[in-house]
Amino acid sequence: MFTIDSRSRVPIYEQLMKKLQELIIRDVMKEDEQLPSVRALAQQLTINPNTIQKAYRELEREGYIYSIPGKGSFVSPVKNKIDKERMEMLRKELERIVGEILYLGVPKDEVIKLIETMEEPERGESGND
Amino acid sequence: MFTIDSRSRVPIYEQLMKKLQELIIRDVMKEDEQLPSVRALAQQLTINPNTIQKAYRELEREGYIYSIPGKGSFVSPVKNKIDKERMEMLRKELERIVGEILYLGVPKDEVIKLIETMEEPERGESGND
DNA sequence: TAACTGTATTATTTATATTAATACAGTTAG
DNA sequence: CTAACTGTATTAATATAAATAATACAGTTA
Predict the structure, then answer these.
(1) pLDDT digits (tens, 9 = 90+) for A52-64
(2) Is the CATH number 1.10.10.10 carried by domain B12-75?
(3) Which ranges carry the HTH gntR-type domain (chains A, B) (predicted)?
(4) Were both Cys, which of A27, B13, B27, B108 would link to B54 (CB 3.0–4.6 Å)?
């Protein structure tokens, strides 16, 4: 299904997450499609099942997939939930950053101006290590 | 000069940095005023001189102080430089966060609206661990 | 029941961050 | 130039945290 670089400084489970997120976001894996089982994937990639499980657990926590004990793990149908959670996180980060900037005495208008100059990004970019 | 909590989970050198930043930002320590020497402060606080030095090194990197080998360490006169560097860092973070948010399809106006609702913070807050 | 599925707990290993020991080099007063 | 101060660089030891692995448990299905 994909390849893993065990020599990379990037943790295996993160590499896994990234690739799976990619597949899900790009709709290569459709809603409710079953993911390979933790053991199957572990065997295929020759890594410990727990590492797969960690990736799956994180992906579930972030709303990308859902798992049913005994049945399997599947692509989450509600993409909006992903956005919801992610947005919540990003909003907090945004507030923190902007808070710090404002603390430095930069007027709010300046911050807004900065954002206004930013371009709406193109979709579909990967960027691996 | 100040106290350190060696039982805290916050590293000693960070505690030190925070307190010194506080003194500098609040102008308790004036421009070009000499800081206690690494050894003097180390002795006073009963901690290793290298820990002090690490704090000083970081503070210098961030523009809060400057050090002259053989002479001592002093409060940096150009406060703007602090803001400059810090702003540069924050700006990058801001762009990253906003970039991610825009990537989720949130329109720019929404982001701006979010910022507009934020309050200009009060000055002078510490917040220790 | 057998062979699959995910999960939880704990231990082990590895990486990173923090602190310390020590030696070096510049500055200045006498 | 020496003595006593200053900051700095290198390296080692220690502490903390992160990543991975071993193992046992529990649900599902044919």
Answers:
(1) 999 999 999 888 9
(2) yes
(3) 10-78
(4) B13
